[in-house]
């Protein structure tokens, strides 16, 4: 092969190799980002689980039976629920007070201008008063929104804690919640998380292959593994004693039409 042809062939091969390396690097970067997104989605599933579970359980815990019962489900739910309720109830009390302040502020504004302003000066004065009142109402609404975010945060933390406990109980001793609604929320969340874990494992293996086998596979099913074992346990003589006869393929979603102020208690 002539020298010039050899040089061109070598340059083309080097360019192709560089292009391939660039594509591989870009794909690896995308896979790493996908793994981060999987972890985020898994965490969000657990947080959503906490919100739904808290809204279902909290009203049921307002009786003395909940604190006296000794069935497995109640004993699992009670410790993390008490921690969450302590924080949420304090914030809910502040929220009720702010809602009352907001209603009073809106009533004052509604009665502040019984007759329309007739002159330009009166309109300017009324505009100033109305702006100040609106500003105060906006401040109260912002405080309520911040409280709502904090309340939701404690519910989400409750979900992170409770989900880990339920997973451990199922994986180590085949325990499944006896309450139908609790079981449904848990089953659906675990199914969703298992799908995300499978997706994460696939991407992790692909990244490992691109890295020549030098990258350790990420943790996948260590704490959130597999599907439910086909076992059923029934708890009796406790705060939760429904027959858990439903399968793990629940598709029920939690709905609650109660007053949001009551749900926070």
Layout: helices, strands, pairs:
Elements: H1 3-60, H2 64-68, H3 72-111, H4 120-173, H5 180-210, H6 260-263
Helix pairs in contact: 1-4, 1-5, 3-4
Describe this protein's structure.
With 265 residues, this protein is mainly α. About 15% of the residues have low confidence.
Order of helices and strands: HHHHHH
Portion in helices: over 70%
Q: What's the end-to-end separation, in Å?
A: 84 Å
The radius of gyration over CA amounts to 29 Å
Rounded mean pLDDT score: 80
Derived from helix and strand composition plus strand pairing, the structural class reads: mainly alpha
Largest sheet: none
Kindly report the oligomeric state of this protein.
Answer: single chain
- The global form is flat
**Low-confidence parts:** 216-237, 242-260
Kindly list the characteristics that best describe this protein.
265 residues; mainly alpha; 6 helices; 0% strand
Write a brief caption for the model.
This protein has 265 residues and is mostly helical. Helices cover 72% and strands 0% of the residues.
